[in-house]
Amino acid sequence: MKQTNQQWQSRREQAVPHGVGNALPVYIEKAKNAEIWDVEGKRYIDFASGIAVLNTGHNHPAVIDAVRQQLEQFTHPCFQVTPYGNYIELAERLNQLVPISEPCQTLFLTTGAEAVENAIKVARIATGRSAIIAFRGAFHGRTLLGMALTGKVQPYKKGYGPFPAGIYHAPYPAAYLGVSDTQALASLAGIFAADVSPDEVAAIIIEPVQGEGGFYAASTSFMKQLRTLCDKHGIVLIADEIQSGFCRTGKTFAIEHSGVEPDLVTMAKSLAGGFPLSALVGKKSLFDKAMPGGLGGTYAGSPVAIAAALAVTDIIEKENLNQRAQIIGEQITHRLQKMAEQFDCIGDVRGYGAMIAMELVEERDSHRPNKELTQALVKEAGKQGLVLLSCGVRANVIRFLVPLTAEKEIVNEGLNILSSCLELVQNTRLTK
């Protein structure tokens, strides 16, 4: 007998730790592109993409075909034991895709956190230094080192310390939060003066557009000054493109908007169209310092996921995903700006390409974040068939991560649901 959503939820509560998030307590049965159906047959429009994993949509035919063919060949010989050619082919493609002019190499892993940790390993072995600088509001994973780098306590870090030492945080430049480029750069200078000498810093890691932090984008000016600072002190610049990569912002990688070249790039999420794969790509001169056996992992570079990723890189070109991101982004931004004229709870609409955020506040006051309204909107949208995600250092941001392959009509339908839900939750809150 088929289980209902409530039955699955009851079973989940007994079998799965409550520490695992549960944004929408419905259970998916099938999906296609930007639509999903639960076990009770209800349809949802997906504005979350599995947290930016499905830029190519659910079950893209090219991805499914590539995986099916790979499954008929082999699933896991382990690249370090008996290597396989598609690992090398994908590495060659990514080496060409990243905006780095020097010769590059690629290391494949399984999760974004692994990519981040290996970026730190490579930076440390290459420089002989240990300290790392990250930014407030950043999210770099849930491992101990990932949490140490992450610049947000709730819900990621509270109660899980102590964390690895030698990690320092600077304010991320976000004008809407009152942090200018000048203030962020001055904070870096303050860290060098008070906490750690720059010649002891191995790397600075930054999300060109913060993900969990609220979709704030570092300006071109800031990124260029950060590059200059790293060059001056011999510091490795790591671009974390795990959420912002693979055409989400209208460029293959978000850092391309600034014209700045990083030294290392971490990527995961949409790399493999829904299959677990991550990568660390960067300058060969940095990777050369690692001894054989110092990098890798048992499941690192799954041939099944690599087959999917090869299909994704084909889709990027064949379906013009960067252009699609810009078109979808314009469609969503236009509607959100119209909503902002109607609803005074919308304090800001921002983003690059199809990586867009709507910040909810009290009466357009940026100093009065509205976390409660944000939570209510996500919940009501789920009831009405729209999957939304929140984020932000103040938990008051709605982020839009629509599949880049979504049909215009589906996106418009989702935005109509969003508008009606926002009107409902705001009016409900005002009448209380």
TrEMBL record:
Enzyme class of the recorded protein, top EC level: transferase
The keyword Transferase belongs to this UniProt entry's keyword annotation: yes
InterPro entries: 4NH2But_aminotransferase_bac, Aminotrans_3, Aminotrans_3_PPA_site, Class-III_PLP-dep_AT, PyrdxlP-dep_Trfase, PyrdxlP-dep_Trfase_major, PyrdxlP-dep_Trfase_small
Keyword Transferase recorded: yes
PROSITE patterns tied to this protein: AA_TRANSFER_CLASS_3
Name of the featured protein: 4-aminobutyrate--2-oxoglutarate transaminase
Keywords: Aminotransferase, Pyridoxal phosphate, Transferase
Organism: Buttiauxella selenatireducens
Cofactor: pyridoxal 5'-phosphate
E.C. no: 2.6.1.19
GO molecular function, one term: 4-aminobutyrate:2-oxoglutarate transaminase activity
Family label: Belongs to the class-III pyridoxal-phosphate-dependent aminotransferase family.
PANTHER family found in the cross-reference section: AMINOTRANSFERASE CLASS III, LEUCINE_METHIONINE RACEMASE
